[in-house]
Amino acid sequence: MLAGIAAALLLAAAPRPAFVAVVDPGHGGDQEGALSPSGEKEKDLALEIARRVAARLRAVGGKVVLTRTGDIAVPLANRAAVANALRADLFVSVHLNSMPTAEARRHSAGVETYFLSPDATDASATAVAARENADRLAGEPELDPADPVAAILQDLEDQDALAGSSRLAYAIHDQLVGGLGAEDRGVKQAPFYVLAGARMPAVLLEVGFISHEGEAARLRAPEYQERIAAAIAEGIAAWRNAARRASR
Ligand SMILES: [Zn+2]
Description:
Blueprint: H1 2-13, E1 19-25, H2 42-59, E2 62-66, H3 76-85, E3 90-97, H4 102-107, E4 111-116, H5 123-139, H6 148-156, H7 159-180, E5 184-190, H8 193-196, E6 202-209, H9 213-219, H10 222-246
Parallel strand pairs: 1-2, 1-3, 3-6, 4-5
Antiparallel strand pairs: 4-6
Helix pairs in contact: 2-10, 7-10
The site of zinc ion has 6 residues, from loops.
């Protein structure tokens, strides 16, 4: 009885989080993602960076849930579903970019930020979405085998979430490019399955090229990972501030 009352009081006293974020480390388990020239795996660096992002967001009062905290495979559709179930304010998927040819691997470095669209911005965005969507093709049944894009289009009917995703993407991208001094490869749109089910502003970050030798070396350094996490947290703060100003 007393324990029950104490629990109720604790619940009543628990402060409401300033915001709820779901941070999604790309890939995991047998889905390794891209590889660096020396063999580092995207799934491992994405998890390290995502953990640092979560810590930064918790430090400013956010409730943060990671879609995975270990090296396990999580179906792409389940990742946004976690955010929907929590009625999260935002969904951020963390990835590292890669180029397919030796020549392109030598030259391509920098930051790209994505939000959802049925049509990709350009051929390069199409390639990135195809690579990131490969996890689904390997492990998950299609929602609608006749037209997998239909599900995305249906979700795009939620135009509020799309506009919110665009604003969130630009806010984080600005901070990443400024904070890292990395090449600005732009904010782009593409049909990412991991974003398709999200009912809130949702973005996919390619925080650097793991396929580029020099950038891969930076990406595995804890100090650089902290700078990435700080930039993402700053971007989210800027996005929240802008939303607050707009609602006044
Ligand atoms: Zn990835």
